[in-house]
Amino acid sequence: METIALEPVDSVRITSLVDNVTDTTAPSVGPAHRTGWGVGTLEAQTIVGGHGVVPLVAEHGFSALVEVTKAGVTHRVLFDTGVSPHGMVENMRRLEVDPGTIETIVLSHGHYDHTTGMHGLVEALGRANLPVYVHPEIWSRRRVVIEGSEPRELPTTSRRALEDAGFEVIEQARPSLRLGGSVLITGEVDRSVTFEDGFPGHEAFHSGAWQPDPLILDDQALVVNLHDKGLVVLTGCGHAGVVNILRHVTKLTGEEDVHALLGGFHLGGRAMQSRIRPTVEAIATFDPTYLVPAHCTGFPATHALADRLPHALIPNTVGTVYTF
Questions:
Q1: Neighbour-count burial for 242-260, b at 16+ CB within 10 Å, e otherwise
Q2: Helix or strand (DSSP H, E) at 5
Q3: Which of 85, 103, 109, 136 has the highest Cβ tally under 10 A?
């Protein structure tokens, strides 16, 4: 594998815009600053004075704003957009995050809990003319087949709708550098870990028929190299396997230190139970300074990671801002 020279940056700031959990009691810790509530008030006729506080919206999805700063210049990347049409943009409004400052969008994969919020972004921005980086497999029709149940087809992201809204869709299966070489989009991740064998029951419609699609090849991550500290790795669902992702990006960049690993690790649900222990032990060998499991990681895996790496683990909540 040819090494990619990922330019070091001076700082990275990641704002959690969409996740499964919101918690106004979670304390700020280390690089994590908890905002807790949105700005302003909301009308509430059953409250004395007619106004209540502004909560942040939690939903089964993921989205994060990534801000990288180098030599005094800051660039902003939107990574995924959540599961509902308006959840992400509403949290942006309540957090006073201006969607007009976004320069680049990266969609980790085609599942609707990471892409549906593009609808609200279109309404907020109008004709955006922003680049959207995706893997070519993102447009595939998918379904989930669970024994004893009818197959459930998943909503599919529309390329035509994105292009009609003014987005420049850029398909890339190989790794690529963006924003002056300071942000790496992994593209398709090498699969080398035997216990990370994909999503059982996941299928895709190809060549006129439904076919097994456990590997979900469009799953990609975003990586930044923090000066003198190591890699900051952001995953959407981590369908490629979070250990596969870590192995891939350390080989790809030649940087062995992992400063932070954040995002969905897809270890929730019964089918993933047997992977939790080997995944936890493998992550521990990378010894990340900070570890932020989110979205589809699941309680058992999060608990196991907290037990194994208590010094590193930070639970994520919507609105949390991480400054590295």
A1: bbbbbbbbbbbbebeebbb
A2: none
A3: 109
pTM tops 0.85:
yes
**Residue 1 pLDDT:** 72
Task: Decide: 237 and 219 in contact? Cβ < 8 Å.
Answer: yes
Q: What is the pLDDT of residue 96?
A: 97
Question: 91 near 37, Cβ under 8 Å?
Answer: no
What pLDDT digit, counting tens, does each position of 179-196 carry? 999 999 999 999 999 999
pLDDT value of position 205: 98
Q: Check if the beta carbon of residue 154 is closer than 8 Å to that of residue 213.
A: no
Show the domains of the chain with their CATH numbers: 9-36+55-323 (3.60.15.10)
Check residue 2 and give its pLDDT: 79
Between CA 321 and CA 96 the distance in angstroms is 13
Structure tokens at 262: 């954040």
